[in-house]
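User: Let's play a game. I give you a shape written as tokens, and you guess the letters that built it. Ready? Here's round one.
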């Protein structure tokens, strides 16, 4: 017979053993396991048992990124919380920490980068890893903030293969072969240009029959739309002359009213959806397409360069700088509630509450509507986030032993103008890096599966792969059916992105609720590429919006609570942004 005291002692001992076992097997609160896409992060363990001065670095040799040391446990209070660890959020955090502010970045995913994600591929028989971007990948000459960042991190870039070979343009059974950058054929002319760009002139000269007629009509329609684009107010689209009429008309309707030529219609729709709508033309307003083209002009060749090691390496470098300056980068921390009071905000994740003077929400606008706010955001902001949506993109990349197409038949890019025949591929890009930049001489082709082919979204990855390769083969020959590697990223499957490339405004949204697009709500500030007035939808836009949010926060919050370092974080103000 066990006495009640002995029994009580046994129970207490058992609870102690169970508790000790739970502690010793506790999972880290926030970790980023080693992926091919980035470095490993470890930010304390569940009860903060790690030595806070432990500086042993993690091995990050595979990713080519920095070594990251263990960090302190989640802070209870900082100057600024940033929701989202993509380009915009991490850039904002770096600029604030450099200016002496204490910052915590909270990210729902188990990785950094947002819509920036790279994949490492090692081609068979080659000991030279190839990094490819499953998200955004290009940079252009007028994207100065991004170029400055690449230079700061000493990341080389190389020319895209646009315009270095022949281009096959197909329409039904007709093929036009030309020298030079065919993508420029779809560029809406600059203001004041009365003549077609040289690539379009060459395309027209080499075409015959229906193809020639369609291209000539396309020039007329593009010039007409350019005149409309020149009237758009980028910062306040609802103030554009005729805004309500443009916002009540789909881009498809505008094109069909402008021309009856089937090829001109199709190519104009392609130009608008790839350059301006970021989605299918029957989903978005004409005002949205025009505003996008005004803010992100394709005439500035934003696809000029690609980056050695891929653009997806930059978030790890930004995060390393944030941590070096004393900031926190917390993964696996989805935010579900932001409360606001006269003195600041409280950001609630699943396991923590962080108090701050302000919060920057740097994520796709539609996802900001899934966070609960107390008090609620104004009705216009709520209505806006209910309407804006993401495009649907699956990025597909095929790797080959060599880029044979550069020699025979020397086609560097192909446009598929017949959706019935080439639904799996509207355009293919040669993104092969120089041999000494990785991949050991492998050839790389990329394409984007869009809403034009909705049936492809319901296929298995293997079925989709086969269809894309068959589409490649129609332009590049049977060798295109035998890649050494194939990568596909369906961005609509990512719950913390919800699609790609960017957000889309459906009919009536800009004119009804546009004023709430980037307007702060008390001490809640919005960032992310969509919010930018320069290059929205691009990395440049992400950096620009992040810098503007930093400037607004500094103005609202004032000096940081800690020791002020006096360093300028206001890149945005230096560049005279609006």
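Assistant: Ready! My guess for every position:
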């Amino acid at each position: 017979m066990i006495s009640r005291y002995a029994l009580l002692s046994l129970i207490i001992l058992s609870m102690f053993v169970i508790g000790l076992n739970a502690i010793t097997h506790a999972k880290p609160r926030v970790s980023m396991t080693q992926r091919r896409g980035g470095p490993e992060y470890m930010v304390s363990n569940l009860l903060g048992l790690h030595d806070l001065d432990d500086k042993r670095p993690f091995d990050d040799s595979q990713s080519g990124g920095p070594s990251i040391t263990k960090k302190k446990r989640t802070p209870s209070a900082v100057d600024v919380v940033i929701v989202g660890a993509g380009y915009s959020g991490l850039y904002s955090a770096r600029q604030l920490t450099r200016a002496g502010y204490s910052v915590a970045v909270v990210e729902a995913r188990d990785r950094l980068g947002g819509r920036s994600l790279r994949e490492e591929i090692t081609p068979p028989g080659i000991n030279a890893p190839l990094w490819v971007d499953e998200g955004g990948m290009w940079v252009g000459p007028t994207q100065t903030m991004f170029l400055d960042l690449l230079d700061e991190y000493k990341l080389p870039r190389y020319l895209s293969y646009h315009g270095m070979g022949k281009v096959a343009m197909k329409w039904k059974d007709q093929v036009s072969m030309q020298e030079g950058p065919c993508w420029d054929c779809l560029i809406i002319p600059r203001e004041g240009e009365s003549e077609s760009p040289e690539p379009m002139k060459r395309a027209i000269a080499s075409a015959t029959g229906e193809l020639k007629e369609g291209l000539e009509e396309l020039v007329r329609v593009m010039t007409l739309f350019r005149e409309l684009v020149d009237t758009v107010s980028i910062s306040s689209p609802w103030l554009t002359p005729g805004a309500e009429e443009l916002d009540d008309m789909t881009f498809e309707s505008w094109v069909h009213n402008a021309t009856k030529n089937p090829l001109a219609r199709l190519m104009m729709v392609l130009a608008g959806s790839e350059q301006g709508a970021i989605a299918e033309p029957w989903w978005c307003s004409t005002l949205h397409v025009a505003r996008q083209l005004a803010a992100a002009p394709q005439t500035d060749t934003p696809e000029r360069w690609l980056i050695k090691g891929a653009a997806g390496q930059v978030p790890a470098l930004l995060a390393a700088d944030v941590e070096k300056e004393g900031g926190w980068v917390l993964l696996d921390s989805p935010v579900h509630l932001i409360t606001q009071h006269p003195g600041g905000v409280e950001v609630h994740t699943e396991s923590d509450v962080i108090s701050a003077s302000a919060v920057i929400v740097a994520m796709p606008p539609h996802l900001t509507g899934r966070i609960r706010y107390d008090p609620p955001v104004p009705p216009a902001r709520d209505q806006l986030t209910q309407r804006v949506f993401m495009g649907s993109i699956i990025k597909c990349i095929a790797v080959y032993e060599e880029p044979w197409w550069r020699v025979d038949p020397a086609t560097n890019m192909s446009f598929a103008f017949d959706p019935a025949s080439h639904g799996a591929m509207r355009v293919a890009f040669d993104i092969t890096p120089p041999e000494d930049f990785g991949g050991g001489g492998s050839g790389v082709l990329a394409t984007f599966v869009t809403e034009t082919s909705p049936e492809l979204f319901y296929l298995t990855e293997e079925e989709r792969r086969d269809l894309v390769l068959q589409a490649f083969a129609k332009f590049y020959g049977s060798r295109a059916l035998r890649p050494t590697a194939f990568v596909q990223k369906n961005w609509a499957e990512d719950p913390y992105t919800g699609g790609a490339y960017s957000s889309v405004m459906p009919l009536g949204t800009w004119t009804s609720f546009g004023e709430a697009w980037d307007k702060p709500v008390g001490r809640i500030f919005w960032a992310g590429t969509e919010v930018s007035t320069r290059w929205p939808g691009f990395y440049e836009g992400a950096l620009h919006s992040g810098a503007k949010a930093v400037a607004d926060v500094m103005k609202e919050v004032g000096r940081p609570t800690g020791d002020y370092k006096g360093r300028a974080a206001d890149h945005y103000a230096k560049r005279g942004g609006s």
